[in-house]
Amino acid sequence: MGAPKWALVGLSMVLMAGFAGCTPDDQEPVTIGLITKQENNPYWVTMRRVAEDVAKSEGVTLLTATGTSDTDIDSEVNAIEAMVDEGVDGILIAGTDSKGVVPAIEAARAKGITVIAVDTPVDPLSAVDAFYATDNKRAGEMVGQYAAAKAKELGLEPQVAILDLAPGISSGELRREGFLAGFGIADDDPVIVGSTDTSGDRELGKVAMVQLLAQTPGINVVYTVNEPVALGAVEALKDAGVDLGGVVVVSVDGGCEAIKTAVRPGDIDATAQQYPQNMARKGVTAIADEVRGGEKPSGYLDTGVELITGDPAPGVTSRDVAFGIRNCWGG
After folding, report:
1. Which of 259, 250, 300, 253 is nearest to 274 (CA)?
2. Is 41 exposed, middle or buried, given 0-12, 13-18 or 19+ CB atoms closer than 10 A?
3. pLDDT value at 6 more than 70
4. Residue 50 dihedral angles phi and psi, to the nearest 5°
5. Domains in the chain, please, with CATH?
6. Three-state SS sequence of 264-311
7. Which parts form a coiled-coil structure per UniProt (predicted)?
8. In which band, very low, low, confident or very high, does the pLDDT at 27 lie, cut at 50, 70 and 90?
9. pTM above threshold 0.85
10. Averaged over 199-205, what is the pLDDT?
């Protein structure tokens, strides 16, 4: 039997609680918790590392915890409760279940702890003090518009595969909604030949693409909720001997490695670049400022999104690969 989730979360916090900046004598000490979804996706690793760097420069003690996947709600709830017990001043959280995490958040706020949702909105959004994130619907619209324009340019009769995140995670749902709107189709449009959930995981993305290709070998437009899933889908397409020159693959994330190794050579045709560094940086400083006499964080902060491609589509505004590499994730 493996260790219980509480022990795993506790161990994670003990190991990572050493990221404390040196608080000047004239400043109020601040302790902040950061809860991310997993460590297998470089997106979340980047967010954590930037939060650690900012905490150090701001003289803040940072506690961090992470789950095992994009759907691991139990670890997040345990982490919130552990951080409340540790006496944190604020919590930054990327929720794995937009509704399921709300009771624990509300309990934390009832004890005077400021909570900022990062990346993924909670439901209702009023359950947190503030929300710092990409406009996920806009990100989906961008890649949807690109995919539609590129398919038209290539003379394709679209056969669309959709590789989603998971039910109950608002960021994935908003991206899908945006993609459909940008592509100009509805959920029940017959051009959608397959749709499946992947939990944002590369291997599950590959498995899903294999299954969808078995059902519809002529798939020529692939929407993926993030770049790990896109990389899995591309691997499956290559294994099946599909000519990627006749398939439009779009995604959301804009990570450095994916842009260099997949967008630049054209395996991923376009991606909507997010800026998780901005979420971490703004979140840590906002809570630190509040504790030290500033305003309480509130409302929505759009941390930006840009369409990155090495092969522009007619009529669609985009940035090139060089821009994507220079600015990946807010760097």
Report:
1. 253
2. buried
3. no
4. -65, -40
5. 5-134+275-297 (3.40.50.2300), 136-273+306-330 (3.40.50.2300)
6. CCCCCCEEEECCHHHHHHHHHHHHHHHHCCCCCCCEEEECCCEEEECC
7. none
8. confident
9. yes
10. 96
